[in-house]
Write a structure and sequence with these properties.
The structure is a single chain. The chain is α+β, with helices and mostly antiparallel strands. It has ten helices and 15 strands.
Length: 432
């Protein structure tokens, strides 16, 4: 391949063998250290955090392996024929001569694009034919900016090989100027980054599962009404414990929303057991009992005692703390009663506060809500530090467009809170 150096860019002196060898040694030591830390930290990779850490270590090792191979190529020079599938076969180069319309590709580039090495290299006009349709405008824009405005190329696109497989290619290049300063050709280095992007997606996906925890198993047995209830936009989340000693799934808490009586009133409830449950049926049985009592019209103030009576006939532990709220959409009236549970949090106008009030003759407190109010119920596992954090999020929560957006903010902020136990949150937004 001809030189891609322009008259305005004199050749830089290549690094000496000794300096490159030192870099290789450093890269290999670092890779060994990262691998050792990865092995020592894999006591438990069954939860979301463990899977995310494993994926991140794998990505770091992948990149360090690439670095080692690239440095070795600098030291040894290009291999005449890298074995198929090797790391070095995933880096190729090309130069397109604009004066003669000729193209020169390295053997590695033929392999990356799945082309026969004996075939004629494609011109710049023909190159988009290998690219996925939706990525062609991106490639065209990069090449145009390079040839017309002299901008360096640095971007990615996906190519379709003759066998139908799709590979992600990272392309870096620049124009080559002649003695008059005109663009004579364009050179580029292309790298197959498919495996690297797959590793990065694994990190992203496991990180997302950590930031947005999946619903607990009992969610599928008694589904939460995510479509909302009359006058309410609803969302909820279960956050598993962050303690490193929590090696088995724990389901201490629950959340639910269901009809209260025969009208449009809704029962909102969050709570947890006196000791952790390790099976999905515990919360499901309790939620089923609550729904039965609510359909019969049992008011929030009576739910604690009635539920305690029912649980005595089961093998389930007693309810440790809970809050029961009734919401009437026609008057936007909220009534609530607690069984040692945390008070509901109300967010309005950029501020947040815990609802207070003396229990009236009916054994429950009452408040009138407004359209746009956000009500947050949570289990005791979040007290006290997490509650202060939640109140500090008031401007963001009241600015959220939906209850689901608010729940995402809460789970992102609480996801990595150290020492947090198994917790549940329920977000209800009063609709106009």
């Amino acid at each position: 391949m001809s030189s891609h150096l322009s008259a305005d860019h004199p050749a830089a002196q290549p690094p000496g063998p000794g300096s490159v060898e030192a870099l290789i040694s450093q890269a290999r030591r670092l890779r060994g250290d990262v691998d050792a830390v990865r092995r020592d930290s894999q006591d438990d990779t069954t939860d979301s955090r463990g899977r995310w850490q494993r994926a991140l270590y794998d990505l770091a090792l992948h990149q360090l392996t690439d670095l080692d191979a690239h440095l070795a190529q600098l030291r040894d020079g290009p291999a005449p024929a890298p074995r198929a599938g090797s790391l070095l076969s995933r880096v190729g180069s090309a130069e397109w001569n604009l004066l003669t319309d000729e193209a020169e590709w390295s053997g590695e580039l033929f392999g990356i694009l799945g082309r026969d090495p004996a075939s004629v290299p494609l011109s710049l006009d023909e190159l988009p034919s290998l690219v996925l349709t939706e990525d062609r405008p991106k490639l065209t824009a990069m090449v145009t900016d390079c040839l017309v405005d002299g901008r360096p190329i640095d971007g990615e696109f996906r190519v379709v090989r003759p066998d139908g497989t799709v590979r992600t290619v990272h392309m870096m290049g620049e124009p080559v100027l002649d003695a008059d300063g005109s663009t004579a050709s364009m050179w580029a280095v292309l790298r197959d980054v498919s495996e690297l992007r797959r590793s990065q997606r694994a990190v992203s996906e496991t990180h997302d599962s950590l930031r947005h925890p999946p619903p607990p198993p009992w969610h599928g047995l008694l589904r939460f009404p995510e479509a909302g209830r009359p006058g309410l936009d609803l969302a909820a989340a279960h956050l598993p414990p962050t303690s490193a000693t929590a090696l088995r799934p724990r389901y201490d808490g629950w959340y639910d929303a269901c009809p209260l009586g025969a009208g449009d009133e809704t029962l909102l409830t969050v709570g947890d057991f006196g000791r952790p449950e390790t099976e999905a049926h515990g919360p499901a049985v309790l939620i089923g009992a609550l729904r039965g009592l609510a359909l019969a019209g049992t008011r929030p103030a009576r739910l604690r005692d009635r539920l305690a009576e029912l649980l005595r006939t089961t093998a389930l532990p007693p309810v440790h703390d809970a809050v029961y709220c009734g919401f009437r959409p026609d008057t936007r009236t909220l009534t609530w009663a607690r069984a040692s549970g945390p008070a509901p949090l109300l967010f309005r106008g950029g501020t947040g506060r815990g609802l207070t009030g003396q229990d009236g003759p009916s054994g429950q407190a009452e408040a009138t809500l407004e359209a746009g109010d956000l009500l947050l119920l949570h289990t005791g596992a979040l007290e006290p530090a997490a509650v202060e954090l939640l109140l500090s999020l008031a401007p963001r929560l009241t600015g959220a467009g939906s209850a689901q957006d608010g729940a995402r903010i809460v789970t992102r902020e609480l996801g990595g809170l150290p020492g947090r136990g198994d917790a549940c949150v329920l977000m209800a937004r009063v609709t106009p």
